[in-house]
Amino acid sequence: MKRMKNVAWSVSLAVMFSLLIFSGPVLSQDYPALQDVEDVKAVFDIRSGDPENVADHLFLVHETFQDKAVRSADSEPEFAVVFMDKSVMLLSQNRESFSPQEREILQKADQLMSAMAEDGVTLEVCLVALDYYGVEADSVADNIQRVKNGWISSIGYQAKGYSLVPVY
Hints:
Largest sheet: 5 strands, parallel
Number of domains: 2
Mean pLDDT: 86
Radius of gyration: 21 Å
CATH architecture of the largest domain: 3-Layer(aba) Sandwich
Number of strands: 5
CATH class of the largest domain: Alpha Beta
C-alpha cells in the first residue's frame, strides 16, 4: 500500500514538472510565430485622435500583455505605448471639447491606462506633439512618462529589440 502511494506521488510530481516545463510550447502552439521566442517586446505607436478607437486598442494591448501565450516566453513581456500625433489630445484632463459620450470613453481609457501602468506596461507621451496640439503637459496623468520626441523613443525601443506595432 505504501509503495502504491509513493508511485502515485512520483507520477503526480512528474506530471506537475512536465506541465511546468512544457507549458510554454503548448501555449504557443496556437501561435507558431511564438515558438522558440525567449523575449516578447513590443512598442505600440498610437496616433489616432478618436477616443473609441484608442480605447479599443488600449484594451487590446492590455489583453495581449496578459495573454498566456505571450507570457509563455522565458521572461516577462515588455510593452511600451507611445502616444504621438492627435492621440495626445485624448490624454489631457481638459476635455471640454469632447462630447459626454467621448468623455465617458476617455474616463474608461484613463482607468485602463492606470491598470496597464500597474501591470508594468510603459506609457509615454511625445512632448513635441503635446506642444503642437496645445496640450499642457501638466494636464496628462502622472503615470504617463513625458518624452521629448516620440519618434526617438520609438527608435530606441526598436534598437533594443522591441517589435513596432502601429496603431493609427
